[in-house]
Amino acid sequence: MPTASFPQWFSVQTLAALSLPLAAIAAVALDRLLGEPRRWHPLHGFGALANAVERAFNVAAGSRAASRQMLDRQQTQHIGRVAGRLRGLLAWSLLVLSPTALAWWLSPAGLPGWAMDVVVLYLALGARSLDEHASRVASDLASADLPAARRHVGWMVSRQTAHLDAAGVAAACVESTLENGNDAVFGALFWFALLGGPGALLFRLANTLDAMWGYRNPRFVDFGWTAARADDLLNFLPARLTAFSYALCGRTRSAWRCWRGQAPAWKSANAGAVMAAGAGSLGIALGGAAVYHGRREQRPELGEGRPATGDDIALALTLLRRCLLLWLAIMLCWGLARA
User: Fold this and answer.
1) From its phi and psi, is residue 307 left (phi > 0), alpha (psi between -120 and 50) or beta?
2) Could you report the per-residue pLDDT of 257-285, keeping only the tens digit for each?
3) Half-sphere exposure of 157 toward its Cβ, with a 13 Å CA cutoff?
4) What is the pTM of this model?
5) Which of 25, 38, 78, 156 has the fewest CB atoms within 10 Å around its CB?
6) Distance between CA atoms of residues 291 and 296, nearest Å
7) Phi, psi of 288, deg, nearest 5
8) What sign does the CA torsion over 240, 245, 246, 251 have?
9) Residues paired with residue 297 on neighbouring β-strands, in sequence order
10) Looking at residue 61, what DSSP letter applies?
11) Are 222 and 85 a contacting pair, CB within 8 Å?
């Protein structure tokens, strides 16, 4: 009798085709089991390094007082804007492109390279952390502890939360959960599927710098321009795929209608698509007035239906889990199709 051979599907080619989806599944499982490292997370060190680089590269406006006296105001503003953007571009490249290129160059072949991809994606994901933060707010609201709910939702959002009522806290938490579904989960998965571990690293570092530098205040309006624009570019496709996933895994017609009709009015096209589709998928109303840095902003309405409640936080997390399973299933099917 001839020696039994492995089934045709179990081959080196099959394993190679499945290496990326299996790495994604392993990284998601690690994130679910372990969560973010409580200590020594690489992003903590990266944040400290980014602050040091910003202090070195982002020259304060006051240091250019002499040049302002010699040049007319319009010319000075133009030169300052260009110089600020160039310094921001250099700092961003140093902090994002250099580590990404190094990770690509050092990435080993075979099993060590696969394990490295798993670890990088695990560190780039924040699904469990997002779940824990949102669930804490939901628990506070369920126990009618509004001060704790305000405090905990303040860890998730940039708006002022001290005077929010229960509905306002719930809406803020759901908005953050939906938006961070893209920033903390699906964006990293998209770039991992495209470029492997270096892609996930590129996205996470760029997204972190946008959160630190992407503000339109005097300090960052020019220096943070590259960080903000790069994050917009890297999120363009992931945000729309996330919105599409929300629509598929919830109230599809409502999500599609809100996405098409409401997202263009939001200040960020990427965030608008994600939150409008998510709100429509859940059948709730989000957006509206919010206070940022002492100023009340009247934001566009998102979604349709009743106001958000504490129960909708759990529904938003369930929507994210469904979408995550969908993404992993698609990646696995794609790998099998390539085998």
Assistant:
1) beta
2) 999 999 999 999 999 999 999 999 999 99
3) 29
4) 0.90
5) 38
6) 4
7) 85, -165
8) positive
9) 290
10) G
11) yes
